[in-house]
Amino acid sequence: MTSNAGYLCRALVYNYVLIGQWIPLLQ
Q: What is the model's pTM?
């Protein structure tokens, strides 16, 4: 359970980073 939760947290962080990089380009 802990490893799965860590993986989900990591995925969320990566998604936020990617979105933060793409938003300026889309605008």
A: 0.52
Alpha-helix runs per DSSP H in 1-27: 2-26
The H or E element containing residue 1 is: none
Task: State the total domains in the chain.
Answer: 1
State in Å, rounded, how far the first CA of the chain is from the last one.
Answer: 39
Tell me the pLDDT band of 1, cut-offs 50, 70 and 90.
low
- Supply the range of the domain harboring residue 3: 1-27
Reading the block at residue 25, the tokens are: 């380009």
